[in-house]
Amino acid sequence: MNQASAPASSRRLPWDWFPGTIPDNVEVDPSAYLETTFCFCLYRSAAPVGVRIGRGASAYQGTMFDVGERGVVSVGEFALLHSARIICDQSIEIGDHTLISWNVVLMDTYRAPRDRLARRRLLQKAAETHALTEASPARPIRIGANVWLGFDVCVMPGVTIGEGAVIGARSAVFDDIPPYSVAVGNPARVIRRLDSPASLAADETRSEM
Fold first, then answer.
1. Rounded to whole angstroms, how far apart are CA atoms 201 and 197?
2. Which tens digits make up the pLDDT trace of 112-156?
3. CATH at residue 152
4. What pTM value is reported for the model?
5. Is 97 one of the annotated active-site residues of the chain?
6. Burial of 164 (C-beta count, 10 Å sphere; 0-12/13-18/19+)
7. What domain range includes position 80?
8. Pick the catalytic residue: 130, 131, 204, 206?
9. Peptide bond into 14 cis (omega under 30)
């Protein structure tokens, strides 16, 4: 069963334990799977399409789309999100066939200034309004196709992770990671390279000669 079975007027999920709906500006391919609409409790995007979930993709319980008013999230075909926190005030792109393990955080913004006095003022205001109301700078995150993010990984604003890369569990990614590499640590550093499809094809060609 998939959400295509849900009445278009209500945009509810027939199997959902939470009495919510898919927001009107969220596009979910009929073959994709959402375990619960609870993942949109922090969703506030006013973009024409704030979240787009591609063919065969899935977002399981615990995944949260914490998307600000101008945020746009794209989840590629057959990507899998397992209890991930997507914090987006500008743009986060997740490539096709990417695996995002539990407790991964993708954040294109810190949502608080680094200056301690500015942060103090923000927190004092939040105590009155019960919300962080000031906009903070955001920088897009791009996750390539066929990437694997291990559990508890945190990807910081402005990072691009290249196609086929693997990020080890509990790593904090502050800088771009090249395609077909393994990176671990805090901050994450590349520790080895992986064979790309092009290099494997070249090896096969040489072996046949």
1. 6
2. 878 889 888 888 888 888 776 666 789 999 999 999 999 999 999
3. 2.160.10.10
4. 0.88
5. no
6. buried
7. 3-208
8. 130
9. no
